[in-house]
Design a protein that fits this description.
This is Chitin-binding type-1 domain-containing protein. One of its GO terms (molecular function) is chitin binding. By secondary structure, the protein is mainly β. It has 2 domains: 257 residues, Coagulation Factor XIII, Chain A, domain 1 (Distorted Sandwich); 94 residues, no CATH class. It has 3 helices and 15 strands. It has a 6-stranded mixed sheet with strand order 2-8-7-4-5-10, with no helix packed on it. It has a 3-stranded antiparallel sheet with strand order 1-3-6, with no helix packed on it. A two-stranded antiparallel ribbon has the order 9-11. A hairpin with a 7-residue loop joins strand 7 and strand 8. The longest helix is centred in the first third of the chain and has 16 residues. The radius of gyration is 21 Å and the shape is globular.
Length: 374
């Protein structure tokens, strides 16, 4: 009987140790997966206990030890594809995640990809993103944050020391389909007694997900309260949960080989298709509209941006939050509050006016993108 009780206790302990999720690649600071770690934290799957642990559970201080605990674990090139891997024992029905870079040891973070829904859904899941083509080279702190869908209202965060290397010659000039690194949003912070809380049972729709999004942004009712900054990061973010800009692609559910992280058995990939890395076009000279809405300067709509008054992009706001004038933009799911639905629709055109691919040889990519960015 005593032996059975011991086994049961061990089983419960093992379950508790694998209770949540953690990033395994790139190996985070103080992670058991990081061979540079001097004081491994075996509770990396635990959520942040509060504002005092934000960011990175406080482990960003290890970055000072550049040849030891804070040594870089991988080099990524601007404009190149990259990924991270999440492992663990309880996905809490997924949720929403963000990937971000910091060049000042965690004093500020810039979001480079948002994942709305299905993040993560299984252990060993890989998530793809693209390093912005104008990302500054040098030492950087890569952060993964996760807001679980089901369970206690929490935020999980792991950080890794990385290097942003030299860009390839093909990516030395910022393309007009890219968004400048300086124009990308800061990291979203909630659930640490900072005035806002995510709503259980919903996939958090980030108030400002940025230009690169996997999943569908724009849902309301996923956040309550007004988010204050935590240790200088995040806030203020209102509780509307509406999308204030950024592209959107369907959440990926198929498998694909990771581009850099080791393969994990049984893991599926949540990597975004090529279409997910769509960014805003050059700003227009539109003037503001009445109320809290302003004319879209990027061809994106929703949140505070409207397509009305922006004829260069199209008058309709599609269900995926892009301006246009095609039947796809103005048809099912068109957001009437952010444009004049039905005005100027043309069934003969299937391209999105805001998208510009300067290389004429990228026609195949154009077709792939246009299936998702409406």
């Amino acid at each position: 009987m005593q032996y059975t009780a011991i086994l049961a206790a061990l089983a419960l302990g093992s379950t508790g140790a694998m209770a949540h999720m953690e990033m395994s690649f790139p190996p985070p600071l103080r992670s058991k997966y990081n061979t540079n770690a001097k004081n491994a934290d075996y509770s990396m799957t635990s959520p942040l206990s509060g504002a005092a642990q934000f960011p990175c559970k406080g482990y960003q201080t290890d970055m000072a030890d550049t040849s030891g605990a804070g040594a870089s674990v991988i080099t990524w090139a601007p404009g190149a594809k990259a990924n991270f891997t999440v492992v663990g024992g309880a996905t809490h029905s997924g949720g929403s995640c963000q990937a971000a870079l910091s060049y000042d040891t965690g004093k500020s973070f810039t979001v480079i990809q948002s994942y709305i829904g299905n993040c993560p859904m299984t252990s060993g899941q890989n998530f793809d993103f693209t390093i912005p083509s104008d990302a500054k080279t040098g030492s950087a702190l890569f952060a993964w944050t996760w807001f679980n869908k089901v369970g206690n209202r929490e935020i999980y965060m792991n950080c890794a020391s990385v290097t942003i290397g030299a860009a390839s010659k093909k990516r030395t000039i910022l393309s007009e389909r890219d968004t400048a690194f300086s124009a990308r949003p800061g990291l979203f912070v909630a659930n640490v007694d900072n005035g806002c809380t995510t709503v259980e049972g919903t996939d958090l729709s980030f108030p400002d997900p940025g230009p690169d999004v996997t999943g569908t942004a724009g849902a309301t009712g996923t956040l309550t309260g007004t988010c204050a900054a935590v240790n200088g990061v995040g806030g203020p973010s209102v509780s509307t949960g509406t999308k204030s800009g950024g592209s959107s692609s369907p959440a990926a559910s198929g498998s694909s080989a990771p581009s850099a992280s080791p393969a994990a058995s049984g893991g599926s990939s949540a990597s975004a298709p090529v279409a997910s890395s769509v960014a805003s076009a050059p700003a227009s000279s539109g003037t503001g509209t009445s109320g809290s809405l302003s004319v879209s300067s990027s061809g994106q709509c929703g949140g505070s941006q409207t397509c009305a008054g922006a004829p260069q992009f199209g008058a309709c706001c599609s269900k995926y939050s892009f301006c246009g004038d095609t039947a796809e933009h103005c048809g099912d799911g068109c957001q009437a509050g952010f444009g004049k639905c039905g005005s100027g629709a043309s069934s003969n055109s299937t391209t999105v006016k805001v998208r510009h691919l300067p290389n004429p040889n990228l026609g195949f990519l154009r077709g792939r993108r246009n299936r998702h960015v409406l």
